[in-house]
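[INFO] parsing input record for FGGY family carbohydrate kinase
[DEBUG] input buffer:
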Amino acid sequence: MSEERYIGAIDQGTTGTRFMVFDHDGQVVANAYQKHEQVYPEPGWVEHKPQEIWENTKEVIDAALAEAGIGSDQLDAIGITNQRETTLIWDRESGKPIHNAIVWQDRRTTDRVEKLQEEGKEGWIREKTGLEPDAYFSATKAEWLLDNTDQIKLQRMRPDDVRERAEQGELMFG
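[DEBUG] output buffer:
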């Protein structure tokens, strides 16, 4: 194996995950890509399976490193790009997601956003976040997850109320 140093980049996108290896001149040394499934549980809803994305990410990293003929110890840094407003909540201790990720394209919280606007909260939201109220953003997606995650599924991890667990710092959001 070469003793040269490299930079890695994970591009976790809407339809798949890519890992690229660059030399210090910015030239691409290796590139691997893996598609993932889009899940449409209802019209206007879009989800991704977090475990599939995790497995694909590991696979593309391994494939690109193999293509480059280098080890992970030769990477000086790894940059990460992601889907921005795609929203996921997971158990802090186990690392297991409580639900599929809600993708940035998902519109299931449009009614909630409209209700917030009707309640005159538009200015407050803008002041606190710098954003316009829209189902695109993650806050109402996280709220939906806290209010609607299947309790039966959660009992395999821990049966406490989802909101209570979030307030206690037992759930992570990203």
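[INFO] The chain has a mean pLDDT of 92.
[INFO] shutting down worker
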